[in-house]
Amino acid sequence: MKPQLSLWSLLVVCYVFVPSKSEASTTTCAALSNQKQYLRSAECFRALAKKMKRGQTLSKFKQVRKGRYLRNGAWAYQKSAQRTNNSSAQAYRLEQAIFLLQSYIDEDLCGKAYRCKRIQKQIKTLRKRIKYIRMRIVTRRGMRARVTVKGYRYTRIFYSPPIKTRLVRPGRYSIFVKYRGLPTVTKRLALYKRRQNRTVSISFPPPIRRRRARPKRRVKPAKRPNTSAPPKKRTVRLARVKKRPNPP
Length: 248
Description:
Distance between the termini: 201 Å
Number of helices: 6
Oligomer: single chain
Strand order of the largest sheet: 3-2-5-6
Number of strands: 7
Largest sheet: 4 strands, antiparallel
Strand content: 15-25%
């Protein structure tokens, strides 16, 4: 007589052979990486990690899984940066890799101290590859201004003063400074690091308010007085006619 499988045994078999939703998603992300679609793979791993809670609230098993998602996403971002010729896109993707690795440390997913040290060393190397630039926007003292900085997938809005120095990626930027009651001052520039610890200071004095000149009224020219002497009257002398005597 053949032994019959109980309902519990069937459930265990189904659990073992049917992949979970997270495992299927992990397979999809890995497949994108195998197809050399590294940017899509990085975004896929990042989305999986974002769905999970912070590392301290997860079980040990899920902490390991989330740590793997973050490390795989950082690796895929670095590979995608190597495959692009756009310097701005390359710096952005390396920065996203740093963000994932820093989250790996901040959420205490290393497990062991030597892993955290290795990740910190990797972050330091990536920062050197990006070559950050220190940008300092100088506005008029005593006048509050709204500053907007836009670059490749980069937008920051802040108020000045206080004047602060900010780290930005190399690339092209558009800077808009708005003083209250005055037109916006715009500057476009390309920032590229040429020497170590370089700080670029950009001055934004307030624009000069120009008043509209009122059109002048047309005034009729005054008639000039006739200062010339009047023409002299010519006197014509008539010849005298001798009177003839009357006949007798």
